[in-house]
# Entry
Amino acid sequence: MLATMKIEEFPAIWYQAANCGGCSISIFNSVSPGIENILIDEIIPGKHINLRFHTTIMAAEGNAAVRLLENSKKANEDNYILIVEGAIPTAKNGTYGTTVNKDGKRVPMATQLQSLAQDASVIIALGTCAAFGGIAAAQPNPTGCMGVDQFLNARRITTPLINVPGCPPHPDWFTGTIASLLLYGPPKPEELDEYKRPKTFYNKPIHENCPRRAYFEEGKFATSFGELGCLNELGCKGPVTYADCPLRKWNNGINWCIGAGSPCISCCEPGFPDLVSPFYQKLNATSLPL
Ligand code: SF4
Ligand code: SF4
# Structure
């Protein structure tokens, strides 16, 4: 008789705040493992993510969806993974961002997120908007959008946080972070960098492993798109951007930004997009590594 292995369930709530949906789409495009493996199968043998709530892909809507969110939170207090996609609008008591109506009143995302964050076992801020504010918090930021870390600090919420930035984030960065959580629990401080990003994925500057690096060293710079050469003159922010894109590549390892002739626009860094704009303007020489 075959022994039956007990499967450990990890409930997860995926909360979409001020976002474009791109982070979800990027993760759903994961190839190995595919999103069906992540959501239905055991991502680690004997361990399974139980995604309880995701507004884009769930069947429930309206009051049924609100009830599902509340029930999932109540039933799994201090035991669910909270995945946040998008920044949190906080201006005017969060009035610019609401997802649900309760008792005839619109509930601000900020109110919902505060409650969800307090009772989660760990939070993943997925994408640069959730991690650092990103596009949603770009100047002049009339909605007062901010990233999850800033939001939690302002409310003295101490739930462990992992930032998985990117505009959008690579699917491997998400699945790798989830797999590590299931295997080992929340990361130790030394496993995250100063911006709470897993060092496994965000440890080295793009510039360090860039296939155009030899051109940079030789002083051969492209002056228009499509030319061979380092893309520094065309605004590449690879020297100040930490991610493993040159090694991992995108679309199941097919290509990546610089491979396709586009400068890195620093989509994983806290300064994106304001501090790295204009995207196609040469980086200040003082930002280059020695
Ligand atoms: S500046 Fe950009 S294109 Fe040039 S070597 Fe560095 S990362 Fe590659
Ligand atoms: S190469 Fe740069 S802009 Fe492109 S995905 Fe990686 S970090 Fe983002």
Summary: The longest helix spans residues 62-75. The mean pLDDT is 93.
